[in-house]
Design goal:
2 domains, rod-shaped, 3 helices, 26S proteasome non-ATPase regulatory subunit 9, PDZ_sf, Pdz3 Domain, PDZ
């Protein structure tokens, strides 16, 4: 009878829907797993690199910063005793600079994803302050 046929069709559609649903759920799980793994890898790479707290946006030629080899876009990780854990504002760096006039400061920057150590000696030059 036509009614019997319709019931078969409904049952079949239900099976197809369930199969699709299961397939979709599996895909979603796999996708979530891939994303989680990608994230974990990114995190572990980020962990091996220290956090920068400031970025060099300009280096005046001839200034102590340029002589030390600092480059624009270097991300500052450590500046003397200042690092991401105790950095509050640029005044911290100014203070370190003032206290270290004429003495080499250890500066660590991230440059193209690598840690680079720079030795910086703050000194007065051309009346432009200690770093220029």
């Amino acid at each position: 009878s036509p009614a019997g046929l319709q019931n078969d069709h409904k049952a079949l559609m239900k099976q197809v829907e369930e199969a699709l649903h299961q397939l979709h759920a599996r895909e979603k799980e796999k996708h979530a797993k891939d994303e989680a793994e990608a994230l974990a890898e990114a995190m572990s790479q980020a962990q091996s690199l220290p956090q920068a707290f400031a970025k060099v946006n300009a280096v005046t030629p001839g200034s102590p910063a340029s002589i030390s080899g600092l480059q624009v876009d270097d991300e500052i990780v450590e500046f003397g005793s200042v690092n991401v854990n105790n950095f509050q504002n640029l005044q911290n760096i100014a203070t370190v600079v003032q206290h270290s006039e004429g003495r080499p400061l250890s500066v660590t920057v991230l440059r193209s994803g690598k840690k680079v150590h720079v030795g910086l000696t703050p000194k007065r030059w051309a009346g432009k302050g200690l770093l220029g």
